[in-house]
Specification:
The protein has 431 residues and is mostly helical. The protein has two domains: 213 residues, MFS general substrate transporter like domains (Growth Hormone, Chain: A); 214 residues, MFS general substrate transporter like domains (Growth Hormone, Chain: A), CATH 1.20.1250. It contains 16 helices and no strands. The two termini are 19 Å apart. About 1% of the residues have low confidence.
Amino acid sequence: MPLGFYIIMAAQFFSSLADNALLVAAIALLLEMNSPAWLTPMLKFFFTISYVAFAAFVGAFADSMPKGRVMFITNTIKIVGCLIMFFYQALSSSGPAAYFAILFAYAVVGLGAAAYSPAKYGILTEYLPHQKLVIANGWIEGLTVASIILGTLLGGVLISRPVSARLLGIDFPFIDTGVDTAPEAAIAVIIVFYAIAAVFNLYIPDTGVDHRAPSKNPLYLVHEFAHCVRLLWTDKLGQISLATTTLFWGAGATLQFIVLKWAEVALGYTLSQATVLQGVTALGIAAGAIFAAKFVPLNRAVNVVPVGIAMGLIVIAMNFARSVEFAIPLLVLIGMLAGFFVVPMNALLQHRGHILMGAGHSIAVQNFNENLSILVMLAVYAMLIMLDVSIYTVIALFGLFVSLTMALVRRRHLYNARAGLLPVVPSDVHH
């Protein structure tokens, strides 16, 4: 691989690492302010809004200039959001206004992330020969999983008592940093990681491609995007893969907060300790993804849908875990099932999307549906917490919902197969 590829990977890794660490720091900040429990999942809700609201436009923005410049601009937007969160007390020191300041700050970071996504995938097709794209996508997915695991753990470490005490003890001569709490100290460190990503952005090579958006007319972009959404949902294989990945990412984002709450109630864990369990689940996802990539050919991708049904039922077993010795293997198993299930479905979706409309439009449609699912499921979870529903009841409802929905998707696929409506997927297509 050329040097520029590793620069792209480094920029992506540090930016994603900071995104995941910032979520933990923001949760800690809300806890420090004694905010209502239902506000915690709203952080991810606000982060995700931009992925849905600007889905029709971010692709055109990414194509309007060199991808390295796009990544630098959008990473700078993330730094601005981080700074707003750091100086939230300038907006309001307490009460609902302070809560909104934190949510707004994380929404700004989400705007940067939404615009960053098409650029990080699009530059690979511009920079690398097509023979190396499969390897390159493997790298970017692997690094993304690693950044989720390490970023979550980093956030937990930064807000932990020993580390935060050391950070707060650092004294710069003649400078009053205004850092008084562990979350603020963590955010200050996270800004440094965003800055490192920005430096790598500056050295991403210009591919020499003529960058010109297909149209600057917003109505045209919305119409084109809506057409692509309809195209993928009406395709008999596209609809199955899109339905399953949409459910997976919505469920995954919700499970992230369920694990934090469950660890607090069932195991008596602090936020810092609970982030380790999130990392354990992500390790399981990585292991499941590796198994799937090795053993599930693309033409049999739909055969993994029963694994999604099983995953939902096994999630309910969390209600019976009262010790970390039982919790860790259970969360690893849930993660492995999730990874084994989503990778073939994601590969099938990319294959159908590429055939029907091209990779760029396909990724935009996928992002829109998956993040819309995240918004809906997080809103429902936040409502249940606001109504003071027991976390054990939430887990049972969550597991049953995932299993039932997956069963309905499988039933739809079997109907399409019996009716002879399925397009042929060649067995030699790589994923």
